[in-house]
Amino acid sequence: MWFWNQYTTSECDRRQSTASPLRADREQLTDLPATMILNGEADVLRDEGEEVLNSLDQTKACRAAMDVSVDWVNRKNEC
Length: 79
Description:
mainly alpha
């Protein structure tokens, strides 16, 4: 909550996809550049990020996302 309050105290702003990307719909995510998001070891929000990701870790969707991520990183390193 402390971090939210540093960013904005407006509940309306907090519901915007620009403040909380998980709220974005497919249309808002279309045509964005290639992106890889990783939690940093010293990131103060790392635990929350891992909690969400770890609870999904063995789902087919997560495994597919991990495979795509590894392939993407490997392709970027081929240059």
